[in-house]
Structure formats: C-alpha cells, structure tokens
Design brief:
Blueprint (H helix, E strand, L loop, with lengths): L1 H30 L8 H12 L14 E10 L17 E8 L18 E7 L5 E7 L9 H12 L10 H8 L1 H8 L13 E2 L4 E4 L5 E10 L8 H5 L5 H12 L2 E9 L19 E12 L3 H7 L11 E3 L3 H18 L2
Antiparallel strand pairs: 1-2, 1-9, 2-3, 3-4, 5-7, 6-7, 6-10, 7-8, 8-9
This protein binds protoporphyrin IX containing FE.
Length: about 350
C-alpha cells in the first residue's frame, strides 16, 4: 500500500514535470526564444498553404481543385513480364481517379500558369478489396531532388513578392538550381481536356516479376487519343472551369481511355533523382488500359475523406530510394489531417 502511494506520487510528479515542460516549450516557441523543429514535410505544407492564400478549410494544401471519376483497369499481357503485382496480371480492377489543378487554391482558373502541372491520382481496387495508388503529374520531372530543395524553392517563391529585394530570392535560387529553373521556365500550355493530357510518374519504383527479376521504372499515363494542348491565344479565351466542365460532357458521350505503361531505367539512369529525366528512347512496357466511364456522384465527399498515397503498394512493386518519393506520404498526411479537422 505504502509502495503504491510512493509510486503514484512519483508518477504524478513525472506528469506534472512533463506538463510544465510542454508549457515551457510552447511558451518559448511562441515567444521566439527557440525554434520548434518542424519536419521539412510539414514546413512544405505550411508554405504551400501560404502561397495559396490559405488555409482553405477542407481542401488539399496542393492540387486542391479536383474532379473524381470512376472506371476500370484492364491489364495488358506484357505487364507480367516486369511485375507480379496482382492488379497487373489478368484480372480487371475497378478504379477511382481524381484529376486536379496544381496549387492549394480551390478556385484556380484551369488555364492559369499556376494550375500547372495537372495531376492524376488513381486508386485500383482488386477483387479481394486490396487497393494500390498511382499519383502522377503532367510534367516529366520534378523541380527538386530532395524535400529540402523543394522547400527552398517554395520559400524563395514566397519571399519574392513585389516588395522583395533585388535580385529576388527566387532569382538567386533558380541561379543555383538548374532543375528548378528548367521546371519553372518550361512552356505551360493547358490541355484541351483532361482526356488529352498525359501524365508522368516522375519517381521510380522497383518492379519484380514472378521469376524474381527486378528492374526500375517510371509510370506514364497517356491518353489513347493523343495529347492535345491549347494555343496561348485559345487558352486566354477559356472559362475558369473549362476542364471540369468538359470531362462530364465527354464521359456522358463515351468513355475516356489512357494507356498505362512503365518507362524502364537503363543501367546509367539515376532512379533516385526526380529531376533526372531519362531519355525518351528507353524501353516502355505497356501495363494496361484505363477506361473512365462516369463522374463520381459522391466525388466531393470522397475527395475530402481520401488521401491518395504513392506508397500504398502491392507485392511486385516497391519504392525506390528517391527522397522526394519517400517524403510524399508524410506531407500528404499533414494536409489530410488538416483537411479532416475542418
Ligand atoms: C516532396 C515532394 C512533394 C510534396 C511535399 C508534395 C505535397 C503534396 C501535398 C501536401 C498534397 C496534398 C495531399 C492531400 O491533401 O491529400 C499533394 C497532392 C498531390 N501531389 Fe504532391 N507533393 C510532392 C511531390 C509530388 C510528385 C513528385 C508528384 C507526381 C509525381 C505529385 C503529385 C501530386 C498529385 C497528383 C496530388 C493530388 C493527389 C490527389 O488528387 O489527392 N506530388 N502533394
């Protein structure tokens, strides 16, 4: 009995000690006497939110404006040559796909240069209810090879307002980061439709087939009808939601299809650097056909309640060591948590 009292007193004082320390830390942090070490991924979400003039309650910190559609995926015979992944063998899967504009601005006009790159998030559901995601963008490559560099780029943009010193922080950053410069200066022609936009996986994955053979590759999702873009003149005449109005109209007439394939890495290709674009001459293996049929009537509810995750993988597909890929789930989870709390 006596012992228990001692233990309890000890536990209580430990709790009191911890609580007072938490308050002390919080006070110190808010008074600016120490810097609370936020993970880089959370800092990225903070800067994305700031750049978007947010927080925009209930929306994603990036790719906030989206539309959700439903369809199916039919695997191609060639898929089994590179992977034993269940959804890439013989069985069809149902898919739910979210197309999006970049930035955390939920009302961004579709043809705005900042609404680039476009995004596609695909969730495959297998007959046994297993799910796996592919999350890709409309550029072949990323502006940064590490989350730290991505944060540096975003912070440089945020610090480069009209009253910024000259040279602006973004000019200095781009001067020392050629991949970021190539990304921000590439032409940003908006697509005619999401149905005429191609998408790239950007990050590499390791594929293993039934014989245990492995190779690295990056996804490509290309519209069956080819890629078509608007001229700069035509882009100026678009309505703010032209892509989001076009897709339901197209689907009401007929399905929209894409070919999913993998661009295989050569021995000389860097599989862990999202800024390193591999030559187009690399072999591509067809994985199958994505057939989108209807707009999801519950899409708004679904997109709020769902976090697509490029690392929700199945046997036969593994992550590479690309630091950008490995950072993504943590950043998405921060954005997801904030979205759910609104
Ligand atoms: C460190 C690098 C990256 C960071 C920090 C980042 C951050 C984010 C965040 C915070 C979201 C919102 C997620 C949510 O709330 O559910 C998001 C969404 C998205 N990101 Fe990234 N991202 C990164 C790299 C990439 C790359 C390399 C790609 C494409 C290959 C990509 C494609 C997308 C797409 C398509 C969405 C929308 C997904 C959806 O529809 O739910 N991101 N990103």
């Amino acid at each position: 009995m006596k012992n228990m009292k001692i233990k309890n007193t000890f536990v209580m004082s430990l709790i009191a000690f911890s609580i007072s320390n938490v308050y002390a830390l919080e006070n110190a942090a808010t008074s600016g006497s120490i810097t609370a070490a936020k993970p880089v991924t959370e800092q990225i979400v903070d800067t994305l939110t700031k750049l978007a003039g947010g927080p925009h309650a209930g929306y994603r910190a990036n790719h906030a404006k989206g539309i959700v559609v439903l369809g199916e995926f039919t695997p191609a015979k060639s898929a089994a040559s590179i992977t034993k992944a269940a959804h890439l063998q013989t069985t069809k899967s149902s898919v739910i796909v979210r197309f999006s504009d970049a930035t955390g601005v939920p009302t961004i006009p579709d043809a705005d240069g900042n609404a680039f790159p476009k995004g596609i998030a695909i969730r495959f559901t297998l007959p046994d209810s297993t799910t796996t995601d592919i999350v890709s963008i409309s550029t072949n490559g990323f502006p940064a090879a590490t989350p730290e560099d991505f944060l540096g780029l975003l912070n440089a943009v945020a610090a480069s307002g009209a009253d910024a010193p000259k040279p602006a922080p973004i000019e200095t950053f781009l001067g020392t980061h050629p991949a970021a410069k190539a990304f921000v200066t590439m032409p940003k022609l908006p697509p005619v439709s999401f149905a005429t936009q191609g998408f790239y996986g950007v990050n590499a994955f390791k594929f293993t087939n039934a014989k245990g053979e492995t190779q690295y590759g990056r996804y490509r999702i290309m519209p069956v009808k080819g890629q078509h873009f608007l001229s700069a003149e035509a882009a100026k005449k678009t309505t703010p939601n032209y892509l989001f109005e076009d897709l339901p109209k197209r689907l009401a007439k007929k399905p929209v299809q894409y070919k999913l394939s993998v661009q295989l890495a050569d021995k000389t290709d860097n599989v862990n650097d999202a800024t390193a674009v591999w030559p187009d001459s690399r072999k591509q293996v067809l994985l199958g056909t994505l057939t989108l049929k209807t707009v999801d009537a519950d899409g708004v509810k679904f997109e709020k309640a769902t976090m697509f995750n490029p690392l929700t993988l199945v046997d036969g597909i593994e992550a590479s060591e690309d630091p950008i890929l490995l950072a993504r789930p943590a950043a998405y989870a921060v954005s997801y948590g904030r979205r759910l709390n609104k």
